[in-house]
Amino acid sequence: MNPPANNTGPGHTSAAIPMIKILGSVSLMCGILIVATQITTLGRITHNKEILLRESIEQLLPGMHKQITYGIEPSGDLKILPGLEGKGHRFFAGYDASGNFLGIVIEAGDRGYADVISAMYSYNPDRRTITGFQVVAMRETPGLGDKIRSDPGFLANFKNLEAEPDHPITTVKHGSKRNPWEIDAISGATISSRAVGRALETSVQTVTPVIARNLDRIKRGI
Amino acid sequence: MSDNQAPIACHGATSHAVDDSPFVNGLWKHNPVFVQVLGMCPTLAITNSVRNAIAMGLATTFVLALSNGLVSMIRKIVPNQVRIASYIAIIATSVTIVGYLVDAISIPVSIALGPFIPLIVTNCITLERAEGYAAKHKVTKGVLDGLGTGLGFTFALTCLGTIREVLGSGTFLGFSLFGPHFEPWVLFVLPPGGFIALAIWLMIFTTWRSWRAKLKKATTKPGLVAIAEVHS
Amino acid sequence: MNESLTHIVLDSMFINNFVLAVFLGMCSFIGISGKFATAWRMGLSVMFCITVSGVLSYFMNILLVAVHAEFLRLICYIIIIAATVQLTEMFIKKKSPALFRELGVYLPLITTNCAVLYVPLMLTARNYNLVQTTVFSLAGSGGYCIAICLLSLVRERIDLSDVASLAKGTALTLVLAAILSMAFMGFAGMGN
């Protein structure tokens, strides 16, 4: 059934060619299958991602009817992005049914205990505070780190968290929060809580100055 | 019984003495997790909830069916030296495809399964079924074997997922079973719990098999043993 | 994310140990940990394979991103791993035939060791640079080596004990692994 192994003598080169031909055709078949699947599912996957994103933003900005995605160019300028576009810094501005500006939703992420924690938070650019927080993806320890998603005491930190440039957001030990820019960590989940603090601070530092410079334009939705 | 001895690395019991339907063999008699002790990585990693366990099992079933089918198709034309490389390329392709499919069906599930979907490529089961069965049988038999083994794998993952989720979170498929005052045995959704849960199932399974073997021996006369085995 | 090298080492070697926390390399972990002598040799071979294929995958990823062929990542990583293992085999066969005979069938099985594929997947997901990649590969595989050696030492001692026949073999190894895993959980928070 299979040709015998033939590594010696003049038959060697002729045995190599069928091998290369077969490997080549198998690779070609595999490549075609992969590309075909990717093309077929691309639309559906993008659609799913958009739905998830929209749901998260709606939860953070209740009453949202319309959303505009702003991308931050390397030069610091704003550009409106259609739908979900690539990497790079971006944020979402939400408007209600009458077109009134509701608030801004920004993505944040940092390495937690097990892996990267991805989150989104809502930001009020007039008062310069964070008004809501939601974990998008995480692989933290169940029963401990994963409380950052649901613990009501922890989530209460983000109802009115100050995000001014002179006071960086810091995570402090559970029960020792004194200032409006501090996050009370979850007792027993310090590492995950600190990761959230770092993620928010990094994001705030990068994105909010750009928002402040372009606030008028964002509020008008252009 | 020698079935509970740890097999050498990935070499589980591969002999299918009685050629029953390959579907039934893969599902029960030669269950990849409980009998052959293969595919340990996802069995321990993904089973901290029943939903993830079933999703992982079905993804692996798809990969097994597809790669077995493709391997059976090319089995007669692939030269001996490059067969393993070809099988691995086919398995990697099937896994890439299943990755896209899971993303298209449910992104939260895809996030929950995480890196373990691409890691199906290194799941010993896929290569073992390709090399040990699909390479020697027709396409339909190969696909059936893939489906059976995959569903057997899903069954094993679900068993584990059930213990771990019920004891470790007090829920089943997300539905709370014991009410809000239940103090969950968190260990079971943590890594050590995975090891312990699998150890418990293996012990249950081996005990059950040795009881059945003793029962068969006690209730059949020597001449009738062959018939009894076919019917089991 | 800018992870410090110390953090990468502590994290991949102890806190999120490849075997005891992330559940990689299980098949070989259960199958080869019978004897310490085999275990540490296997551990070192795996360390070599993981480090080499990790670094090669880093470069391959750069290439794939440049030609917008990210969907070929999985196949390319697997090819790199298979080639590395093949080369390792040939190298060991030449340098030490005795070691080659002793490792026997376990060497080619490194190809199906989840831990080896996990490293390229993670360095892609976490966007590590070359130095971080090398450190991650070395430390992570070092953690695998430590875990497998520890388990083999415990198993050698247990070999001489009286164990219920129902738990002999794989079940017992799993319970031992559970205890080791619990011990390693004590490393949580180290270096933070």
Could you characterize the architecture of this molecule?
Chain A is built from four helices and nine strands; from the N terminus they run αββββββαβββαα. With 222 residues, chain A is an alpha+beta fold. Chain A has a seven-stranded antiparallel β-sheet. In chain A, β3 (90-95) and β4 form a beta hairpin. Chain A is globular and about 80 Å long. The termini of chain A are far apart. Chain B has nine helices and two strands. Chain B has helices spanning 22-29, 40-45, 50-74, 83-105, 107-113, 124-132, 139-169, 191-219, 225-231; strands spanning 171-172, 175-176. Chain B is mainly α. In chain B, a hairpin with a 2-residue loop joins β1 and β2 (175-176). Chain B has one domain. In chain B, strands 1-2 form a two-stranded antiparallel ribbon. Helix content of chain C is 71%, strand content 0%. Chain C is built from eight helices and no strands. Chain C has one domain. Chain C is an all-alpha fold. Chain C is globular, with a radius of gyration of 17 Å. Chain C has helices spanning 5-15, 26-32, 36-66, 73-95, 97-103, 114-125, 130-158, 170-185. The interface between A and C is medium-sized, with 14 and 12 residues.
The helix count of chain C comes to 8
**SSE class of chain C:** mainly alpha
> Domains counted in the coordinates of chain C: how many?
1
Give the termini distance of chain C in whole angstroms. Answer: 15 Å
| Strand order in the largest sheet of chain B | 1-2
Overall 3D shape of chain C:
globular
Proportion of residues in β-strands of chain C:
under 5%
Helix fraction of chain C by DSSP (H/I, runs of at least 4): over 70%
Specify Rg of chain C, calculated over alpha carbons: 17 Å
Mean pLDDT metric of chain C: 88
- Main beta-sheet annotation of chain B: 2 strands, antiparallel
- Taken from the alpha-carbon principal axes, the silhouette of chain B is flat
Radius of gyration of chain B, taken over Cα atoms and rounded to an integer in Å: 19 Å
